[in-house]
Amino acid sequence: MSLPWRATIAAVVIVVTSSLVAALPAHADTSGTTESPLPQGRAIANTAHRGASIGAPENTLSAVQQAIALHANFVGIDVRRTRDNQVVVLHDTSLDRTTDVEQVFPGRAPWLVNKFTLAEIQRLDAGSWKSAAYTNERVPTLGEVLDELSPSSTGAFLEIKHPNRYGGADGIGEQVVDEVRLRTTWLAADGLNDRLVVQAFNDAFLKEFKVRHDEVVVGALGSVGDPNDYKSWADQINVPHLEITETLVDDAHAAGLAVSTYVVDDAASMDNVIAAGTDAISTNDPDWLHDVLTAESRVMQDPNAPPPPSEPTQSVLSVKTPDTALLQTRIPLTVGLQGVDGTPARWTWVEVQMREDGRWRTLQRRVTNRFGELLTSVRTGRQLSLRVVSAKSPWYAAAEPVVRDVETRKATTRVRLYGDARIADGASALLHVRWVAEDARRITGSADLWARPSGGRWRVIRQVTVRDGNLELRVAPKVDTRYEIRARHGSWWKADTDRHYIDHVG
After folding, report:
1. Interval 51-63: pLDDT, tens
2. Is residue 182 located within the same domain as residue 279?
3. At 208, which helix (H) or strand (E)?
4. For a Cys staple, 72 with which of 48, 290, 356, 458, CB 3.0–4.6 Å?
5. Across residues 290-310, what is the average pLDDT?
């Protein structure tokens, strides 16, 4: 059994149902061979679990882009369907762990993915939970991930969650194949057959899928007994790493099955599965695994990928930012990186730095996309001087750094004081304070309540704290009284005042 790569791009791997795991694009030989067709010491595939999820938010385009840049042979992602039958890349049944759905849709618990439309899901921030550097990262569709992978040498493990909930092989199975055909040449009639591997914990689903798409490689996912039980319909097995043994691998190879394993993040486990002869390893840290495989001369290379030039091409950076910005907001930053011939510098590391105390401090280290762009945002400070630096790669030399200065200012605010306008003798009045900035941020800050009774002078009667833009308080004027709220300035906002008159009926 060979371990073929697609003609121009690494194979795509589709993993179906439960947890995301690695797979290898190998087509099974079910002829009943008794000797392992896979020699020891061969290359091992490096699969980035949910993308390069050690550094980027899982199952996002940023995680995919970083996996490509970190030499991953495959990217492991999860797919499921929305309420309007769109395929999105997301692991959990609910949106609450990896998005801000609780803030955006507070009344729709338990926030199940299949209860939201694609338009609703794409309003969510799927990156801030990992790091502020990924603020406003979105939940991608399967099509967007395929578009990103298509021009690369990295394939994908796509775990279809709960396929029987979405019509099984006739439903989401066909939909996934259609997405692949629409966006790639991986299933071209004249191409290799090992471009799509469907794996599942659901053997019945896989068997039905194999009948429909015999050209697609199928893998059994999860714990296995006798590998010979799978060879009549599967092409490979994908086993938890604690269950990998040399005997299991040898038996699977003898049955014509490739062996992959998941999820391996420590050195001892990496050594164990490599020594056992496994064919592919899924990890959250593909950079580390690449180093381990490099040290053992076991890195899998795409033989059809063009070699890098003898000398890296010169590259040019472009940076776009607003000229001015409000303090303590996030401003968009668009970075473009291309060769001098205009070709995009794809999947290249870029650093965004900020000048602080006379030195450049790194804010973000990210990767450009397939267009050679990095679309991100940075938080503003009192002085914002940014520098963007690109890293050298085998393809592109480091570009001349670009510096951008952004003028920052405090936000203007609007404070409102309103409430009861007329009270009887001996009664109290309820006053309300609302305090927001010009960009609708609600302010938590200090304010002073002043009063001027009829015939008297202004005096401070209370010091208050407005929280999240709101405050309620009671006053008990003895005569007609004018009140004034004087909201103080803060670290990023300006002060404001407002008045309210209460007519006291004696």
Report:
1. 999 999 999 999 9
2. yes
3. helix 203-212
4. 48
5. 89
